[in-house]
């Protein structure tokens, strides 16, 4: 018998795009695991603008199971947007994220839940140690994970695994936007949640449909890593970077120009013909450096103003919601 609680033990967030075939099987699998372990739970399906019958299937699941809740976007916003809205909606003590394609096994949930509640971890990331993916995907993924480990200092094997567990405090404290879902452990770590663990999870072959992520992710991945590194360090204080760089460049140009001017005055004082200041290459280098310094300083100032007055970056038009 399904138990409904206003404060469930577990909230499951499942972003999806055109996964109508897999949803009934995934729901039944989750329900069996939840009931077998006597967990109170809620399942949030976040329909990211599906064009197939996914929403009809979700409505049917909602009618049959009060633990099923859902949000539907008017168009496709991406996995990060879906996760962010799901994180805003959840109420459970532990939040589990998983993909809707049946490649993540709900059988992993009890151990993930235990690691959060008993081991005291803030976040547990799944590690698909044995993957059922082609080399064209596994090799770039290994390179991407290696680069992320080196840049972030967080030693996880699989940053992009969709199967993760979080304390509720974590998902309420972080913001996921753009394509930053790949870097949630990094975002959480920089938000002050240091207890990050890892669990080897079973990876299954895709049963229905095809992947929604193309080769462009291998280009976006490194760019997103650079972006999140910059935003995490200077997103709230852009003046600390641009202002410092601008000041240094302006001072270098200023002192170089001052040197040229003083040199000209010296030669004039001893009545020696000297070349025009404007005929020397260093004059134009000094001028360019000062102009660039001023531009960088202004960029930092404008960035500071924007960061202090920016509205919420995650605004999504929901067309339907089931609770």
The level 1 CATH classification of the largest domain is Alpha Beta
Q: Total helix count?
A: 10
User: Strand arrangement, largest sheet?
Assistant: 7-5-6-4-1-2-3-8
Rg value: 27 Å
Overall mean pLDDT: 84
Total domain modules? 2
Tell me the strand percentage band.
5-15%
> Which segments are poorly predicted (pLDDT under 50) over 5 or more consecutive residues?
1-5
Shape: elongated
Major β-sheet, in short?
Answer: 8 strands, mixed
CATH architecture of the largest domain: Alpha-Beta Complex
Give the helices and strands as they follow along the chain. EHEHEHEHEHEHHEHHHE
Under CATH, the homologous superfamily of the largest domain reads: Spore Coat Polysaccharide Biosynthesis Protein SpsA, Chain A
Structural write-up:
The chain has 323 residues and is of the alpha/beta class. It has two domains: 10-132 and 159-213, Spore Coat Polysaccharide Biosynthesis Protein SpsA, Chain A (Alpha-Beta Complex); 239-308. It has ten helices and eight strands. It has helices at 23-36, 54-64, 79-89, 109-117, 135-152, 168-173, 184-190, 217-234, 239-269, 281-309; strands at 10-16, 41-47, 68-73, 94-97, 123-127, 164-167, 196-200, 318-322. The longest helix has 31 residues, at 239-269. The protein starts with 9 loop residues before the first strand and ends with a strand.
């Amino acid at each position: 018998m399904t138990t409904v609680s206003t404060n469930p033990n577990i909230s499951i967030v499942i972003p999806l795009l055109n996964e109508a075939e897999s949803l009934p099987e995934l729901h039944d699998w989750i329900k069996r695991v939840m009931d077998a372990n006597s967990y109170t739970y809620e399942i949030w399906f976040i329909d990211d603008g599906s064009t197939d019958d996914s929403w009809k299937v979700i409505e049917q699941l909602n009618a049959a199971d009060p633990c099923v809740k859902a949000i539907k976007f008017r168009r496709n916003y991406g996995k990060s947007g879906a996760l962010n809205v799901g994180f805003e909606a959840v109420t459970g003590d532990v939040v589990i994220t998983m993909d809707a394609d049946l490649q993540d096994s709900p059988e992993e949930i009890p151990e993930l839940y235990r690691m959060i509640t008993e081991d005291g971890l803030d976040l547990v990331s799944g590690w698909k140690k044995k993957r059922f993916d082609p080399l064209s995907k596994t090799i770039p993924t290994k390179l991407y994970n290696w680069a992320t480990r080196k840049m972030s200092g967080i030693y996880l094997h699989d940053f992009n695994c969709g199967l993760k567990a979080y304390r509720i405090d974590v998902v309420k404290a972080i913001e996921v936007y753009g394509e930053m879902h790949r870097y949630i452990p990094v975002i959480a770590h920089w938000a002050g949640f240091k207890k990050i663990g890892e669990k080897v999870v079973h990876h299954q072959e895709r049963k229905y449909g095809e992947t929604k992520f193309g080769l462009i992710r291998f280009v976006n991945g490194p760019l997103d890593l650079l972006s999140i590194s910059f935003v995490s360090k200077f997103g709230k204080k852009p003046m600390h970077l641009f202002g410092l760089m601008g000041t240094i460049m302006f001072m270098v140009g200023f002192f170089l120009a001052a040197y040229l001017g003083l040199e000209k005055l010296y030669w004039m004082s001893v009545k020696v013909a000297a070349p025009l200041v404007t005929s020397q290459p260093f004059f134009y280098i000094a001028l360019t450096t000062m102009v660039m310094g001023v531009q960088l300083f202004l960029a930092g100032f404008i960035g500071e103003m924007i960061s202090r007055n920016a509205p919420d970056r995650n605004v999504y038009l929901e067309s339907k919601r089931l609770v």
